[in-house]
Write a structure and sequence with these properties.
The complex is a heterodimer of chains A (108) and B (115).
Chain A (H helix, E strand, L loop, with lengths): L3 E4 L2 E5 L4 E7 L5 E7 L5 E7 L2 E5 L2 E6 L4 E6 L8 E8 L5 E3 L3 E6 L1
Parallel strand pairs in A: 2-11
Antiparallel strand pairs in A: 1-3, 3-8, 4-5, 4-9, 6-7, 7-8, 9-10, 9-11
Chain B lengths: L4 E3 L2 E4 L5 E6 L6 E7 L6 E7 L2 E5 L7 E4 L6 E5 L8 E8 L9 E2 L3 E5 L1
Parallel strand pairs in B: 2-11
Antiparallel strand pairs in B: 1-3, 3-8, 4-5, 4-9, 5-6, 7-8, 9-10, 9-11
Classes of the chains: A mainly beta (108), B mainly beta (115).
């Protein structure tokens, strides 16, 4: 069983829709990261969370430590949001453990 | 805005050859990482580096791999004798703070193709 599970694996939405991507993890963590990977391969850090909620523009990330679950929400989605969204957790030590990613496609 | 840079963007090498992948972390960052992503798979941790020594390494990071910070700005990953299965995207990352503090900033990656 993977330590980090994301759902859905693939998500197609129409422009303007509200999008939710989920991440569940099985170990105790000190931080959770949401990352964005564009088709060219580059990775951009969106959020780092250890509790509660963070918002940046149209992106919102929440985490429930007791339930070992995090969600990434995108409001008013746009085709430029199309990318792979990756959840990664930091347990003990310095390493990040990554989920498989969610491929998001937003159609105009 | 400061960013992590990596060179080359794409490296093609023959099996058995040595390769060195180069990274320039953000200048005031203290913690450095290498990750790899085999095509179609998830990103995997390779190694973390702090204070001129490895602080943690994964099972993937065997004797064929080494890291170095030769001059205070570059951070390199060397693969001594490449295998076909080393073909992947290699990402460097850096951060300023210890432990869970501070976000990791990723470089654009080097695509390594071993033929």
């Amino acid at each position: 069983k993977n330590e980090v599970e994301q759902s859905p694996q693939n998500l197609t939405a129409q422009e303007g829709e509200f999008i939710t991507i989920n991440c569940s993890y099985s170990v105790g963590i000190s931080a959770l990261h949401w990352l964005q990977q564009h088709p060219g391969g580059g990775i951009v850090s969106l959020f780092m969370l250890s509790s509660g909620k963070k918002k940046h523009g149209r992106l919102i990330a929440t985490i429930n430590i007791q339930e070992k679950h995090s969600s990434l929400h995108i409001t008013a989605s746009h085709p430029r949001d199309s990318a792979v969204y990756i959840c990664a957790v930091k347990a003990s030590g310095s390493r990040l453990t990554f989920g498989e990613g969610t491929q998001l496609t937003v159609n105009p | 805005e400061p960013e992590v840079t990596q060179t080359p963007s794409h490296q093609v090498t023959q099996m058995g050859q040595e390769v060195i992948l180069r990274c320039v972390p953000i200048s005031n960052h203290l913690y450095f990482y290498w990750y790899r992503q085999i095509l179609g798979q998830k990103v995997e941790f390779l190694v973390s580096f702090y204070n001129n020594e490895i602080s943690e390494k994964s099972e993937i990071f065997d004797d064929q791999f080494s890291v170095e910070r030769p001059d205070g700005s570059n951070f390199t990953l060397k693969i001594r004798s490449t295998k076909l299965e080393d073909s992947a995207m290699y990402f460097c990352a850096s951060k300023i703070l210890a432990g869970s503090g501070g976000e990791q900033y990723f470089g654009p990656g080097t695509r390594l193709t071993v033929t």
